């Protein structure tokens, strides 16, 4: 006894929805006759169907998150150096750790170089380039010390990352994870679609 429903699209925002063998009812942005359940079901399908690609009813939208831990960086414990979901790369905060887990000596300038190198190593391992950086946050124990060495730090940035500058923030903090660390850098990159 159930009748199939026919749908014909008629320009922007209009369609004709009709049970087979009956008079057509116009489905437009206003004045839609929704008294028949078949019409409401058909309209729902027309509205929702375009958004269902890649959707699992049990789990929701499907996204693959890759966790990247380059062997040239210190072994992470409880975090990933980078994650990639589609064309977005999130880069974990990096301090001036060497691959063996020691913090570089010598103050803010060599620590900035090592921390930025670590960020860029994780970025490259995730398939990105310095010009893909969209946002960088720099956490600092001593902002005046960082500012006093701004020319040297700027030269290091340009040497390692170029001049396609991302949005940046420098934030003063009272402590970082490693007591010897003076700076920590984290970022987000957007890469071209694969």
Features of the shown structure:
single chain; 194 residues; alpha+beta; 60s Ribosomal Protein L30, Chain: A; 6-stranded mixed sheet; 3-stranded antiparallel sheet; 4 helices; 11 strands; 28% strand; disordered N terminus
Shape: elongated
What fraction of residues sit in β-strands? 25-35%
Mean pLDDT rating? 83
Helix and strand sequence? EEEHEEEEEHEHHEE
The CATH homologous superfamily of the domain at 65-190 is termed RutC-like
Structural class: alpha+beta
Number of strands: 11
Order of strands across the widest beta sheet? 6-7-8-11-9-10
Quaternary structure annotation: single chain
The name CATH uses for the topology of the domain at 65-190 is 60s Ribosomal Protein L30, Chain: A
Distance between the termini: 49 Å
Global Rg: 27 Å
Specify the CATH architecture of the domain at 65-190.
2-Layer Sandwich
CATH class of the domain at 65-190: Alpha Beta
List segments where confidence is low: pLDDT < 50 over at least 5 consecutive residues: 1-17, 24-30
- What's the helical proportion of residues? 10-25%
Sum this structure up briefly.
With 194 residues, the chain is α+β, with helices and mostly antiparallel strands. 25% of the residues lie in helices and 28% in strands.
């Amino acid at each position: 006894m159930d009748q199939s429903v026919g749908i014909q699209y008629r320009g922007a925002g209009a369609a004709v929805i009709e049970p087979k063998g009956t008079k057509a009812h116009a489905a437009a942005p206003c004045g839609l006759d929704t008294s028949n359940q078949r019409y409401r079901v058909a309209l729902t399908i027309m509205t929702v169907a375009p958004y269902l690609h890649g959707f699992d009813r049990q789990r929701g939208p499907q996204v693959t998150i890759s966790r990247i831990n380059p062997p040239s960086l210190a072994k992470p414990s409880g975090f990933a150096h980078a994650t990639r979901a589609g064309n977005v790369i999130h880069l974990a905060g990096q301090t001036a750790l060497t691959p063996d887990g020691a913090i570089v000596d010598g103050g803010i300038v060599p620590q900035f170089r090592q921390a930025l190198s670590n960020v860029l190593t994780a970025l490259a391992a995730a398939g990105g380039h310095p010009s893909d950086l969209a946002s960088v946050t720099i956490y600092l124990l001593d902002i005046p010390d960082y500012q006093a060495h701004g020319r040297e730090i700027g030269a290091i940035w340009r040497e390692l990352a170029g001049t396609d500058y991302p949005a940046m923030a420098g934030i003063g903090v009272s402590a970082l994870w490693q007591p010897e660390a003076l700076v920590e850098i984290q970022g987000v990159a957007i890469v071209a679609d694969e």
